[in-house]
Design a protein that fits this description.
- The protein has 164 residues and is α+β, with helices and mostly antiparallel strands.
- A four-stranded antiparallel beta sheet has the order 1-4-3-2.
- Strand 3 and strand 4 form a beta hairpin.
- The protein is globular, with a radius of gyration of 22 Å.
- The N and C termini lie far apart (64 Å).
Length: 164
């Protein structure tokens, strides 16, 4: 008995995705400990705000892409809104990606690749804040799919407003 379909045509198989991390690194980082510089009066209960931006670009080598997760984290006192610290970090991963259709490459790079590097970025943020004299900041898991969809909706609205 044969494993081929009865009509003799080979079954259409989706391409196998082959992805691996070639490198990970901090592209840029700044940690400003405002509390140590200026001091803050009263009990310094923090309020943390995290902004996330993503960027991806093709590298010169075949099938290689650099994906950058940019975080801007600010901590202020809940009571008076006085700044405690500001952390800006760009964390990059270089990925070798094959088997992803061209129309799916953009979402793959901005959803799947940041998911892979995020645990490492989370650890760095935790270490930096702890070493800066604050309790270690353990970031919540980021929903990169929701972030991608939100950005697509924002761009569609911007295009719609530009057309009017």
């Amino acid at each position: 008995m044969s494993d081929t379909p009865e009509n003799g045509a080979a079954a259409a198989q989706p391409a196998q995705v082959n992805s691996r991390v070639m490198a990970q690194y901090i592209r840029d980082m700044s940690f400003e400990n405002i509390l140590a510089q200026k001091g803050v009066s009263g009990d310094a209960q923090p309020e943390i705000q995290v902004q996330v931006n993503l960027d991806a670009r093709k590298r010169t080598a075949d099938n290689q892409y650099e994906v950058i997760t940019k975080l801007n984290i600010t901590s202020k006192t809940k009571e008076k809104g006085e700044p405690l610290f500001v952390l800006e970090i760009e964390y990059a991963g270089v990925f070798h990606v094959e088997g992803v259709p061209e129309e799916q490459m953009h979402p793959y790079l901005l959803i799947e690749c940041p998911r892979i590097t995020f645990p490492f970025l989370r650890r760095i943020v935790s270490d930096i804040t702890r070493d800066g004299g604050f309790p270690a900041l353990n970031l919540e898991t980021i929903d990169f799919l929701a972030l991608y969809r939100t950005e697509l909706a924002r761009r569609a609205e911007a295009e719609k407003a530009k057309a009017n």
